[in-house]
Design goal:
Strand content: 5-15%
Radius of gyration: 18 Å
Strand order of the largest sheet: 1-2-6-5
Helix content: 40-55%
Shape: globular
Distance between the termini: 29 Å
Largest sheet: 4 strands, mixed
Structural class: alpha/beta
Number of domains: 1
Order of helices and strands: EHHEEEEEHHHHHHH
Length: about 300
């Protein structure tokens, strides 16, 4: 992705090296269970690292509050955020990608929604951090917290995504950020609140199915962002995003972790579904094209 001439976003909070305290009790649904049985430590580690790359509050995997449960009141972060501590290539890359989401969604909101776009903050952290949704560890991957409307990112995740799971490339990393911003779009549009209310009335299986549609919509919104930045794309960028989307499909993760695929336990969608909805957003380029909730087939 060609970002040489792109500005850097100022909506960055640097919490690196400040720690995040313990893990408070949180309301909401229980941890993710696959196939009705237990999983080994290796399988759990894979799911913690990848299943939440594009998803709900990562504490749901630890038996805490999930994206479908009630969001706790915002909690004060440990320490005070500061300007980024360094100007590494990755720092600049993240700031520039975030800037593209700000510019793109400002235009799209003006055209399609008829309102101003309010961008999220992106919090850089290492190790662990306390968000408005509770405490989290970097091993859980990037996440978006609707309670404080912030994206949380430990940049070491990108190395893990590349080395361990075969999804390298700058656009794969940009896709991760764009997906989390997609969850912010859902919050601004009131979709997140509607999903939480629906899940509160649903069975576990029904709640999972609703969450899948939530995640696929965020994938589609990432595709809309990609369409808005088509002039910055380089050869191979779309393929990088497709590999990343495929790598974190529920079926792919379950097959690698336990050798069995259990569709009713999906919370993010299959590899085919994730790539399909990203490509729909990329092809259509509109919020309206991303209505996963009223689509008969996902």
């Amino acid at each position: 992705m060609d970002l040489d001439d792109e500005r850097e976003s100022s909506n960055i909070e640097d919490m690196r090296g400040q720690g995040g305290g313990g893990f408070p009790s949180m309301g909401g649904g229980g941890g993710l269970r696959l196939g009705g049985g237990g999983m080994g430590c290796g399988g759990i580690a894979i799911l913690i690292v990848l299943a939440l790359v594009f998803g709900i509050n990562p504490l749901s995997l630890l038996g805490g509050g999930g994206g479908g449960g009630q969001v706790s009141a915002p909690q004060q972060q440990i320490g005070q955020p500061s300007a980024p501590q360094s100007s590494s290539d990755m720092d600049r890359f993240v700031a520039k990608v975030l800037a593209t989401t700000e510019d793109s969604w400002s235009r799209i909101f003006a055209q399609e929604v008829g309102s101003s776009y309010r961008p999220p903050k992106l919090v850089l952290f290492t190790g662990r951090v306390r968000s408005g949704c509770g405490a989290a560890e970097s091993a859980m991957g990037p996440f978006y917290c609707p309670a404080d409307q912030k994206v949380y990112l430990d940049q070491s995740f990108f190395d893990e995504l590349s080395r361990r799971f075969g999804a390298p490339g700058d656009f794969a990393a940009a896709y991760v950020i764009a997906h989390e911003v997609g969850h912010h779009i859902q919050t601004l549009l009131g979709i997140s609140d509607q999903v939480q209310r629906a899940q509160a009335r649903a069975s576990k299986t029904q709640g999972n199915a609703i969450q899948v549609r939530m995640e696929l919509q965020a994938d589609c919104l990432a595709g809309v962002w990609a369409k808005a930045n088509a002039g910055k794309l380089e050869p191979g960028d779309v393929e990088e995003a497709m590999r990343a989307a495929s790598a974190i499909g529920d079926d792919t993760l379950q097959r690698a972790a336990q050798g069995v695929v259990v569709p009713e336990s999906f919370t993010h969608g299959s590899s085919a579904q994730r790539t399909k909805w990203f490509m729909r957003g990329l092809t259509e380029g509109t919020i309206a094209a991303c209505d996963t909730f009223n689509s008969r087939e996902i």
